[in-house]
Amino acid sequence: AAYIEYVDKVCPCVLLLHSQGGTFGFKVAEQRPDKIKAIVAVESATAGIVANAPKLKDIPVLMLFGDYVDQHPRWATFKKIDTEYANAIKAAGGTVDWINLPEIGIHGNGHMMMQDKNNMQVAEVIQKWLVGKGLAD
């Protein structure tokens, strides 16, 4: 309830979600899609409720992953859940961009990539995506 109250107070905005915060952010976006300009989910530990994913069809979503997600059973499961959620948004006509950092030449990122030595490269990827969506300069 507090998260929704906060979104009602400060948005429209872009939600930047990380880890366990992903599930909270996606669920709030499902309830207030008119308030959310975009979602950037950095290794989200699950997204929202798949049946509600179509509510986000008008919100651009970026899902970002580092090097080691597939090597840990727990995180591989979360990635699978995120994939299912992303596919539900796409099936409703929405857009979800999926970036695996190693696939674009950025290596060495763990789950706390904002603290990794190459965090500026990761931030640059997010900034470029936001600019491409017309949400930043």
Structural summary, described in words:
There is one protein chain. The protein is globular. The termini are far apart. Helix 3 links the parallel strand 3 and strand 4. 39% of the residues lie in helices and 19% in strands. It has 137 residues and is of the alpha/beta class. It has a 4-stranded parallel sheet with strand order 1-2-3-4, with helices on both faces. It is built from 4 helices and 4 strands. The model has no long low-confidence stretch (mean pLDDT 92).
Name some characteristics of this structure.
alpha/beta
Largest sheet: 4 strands, parallel
The overall pLDDT average reads: 92
Give the % helix.
Answer: 25-40%
General form: globular
Task: Name the helix and strand elements from N-terminus to C-terminus, one letter apiece.
Answer: HEHEEHEH
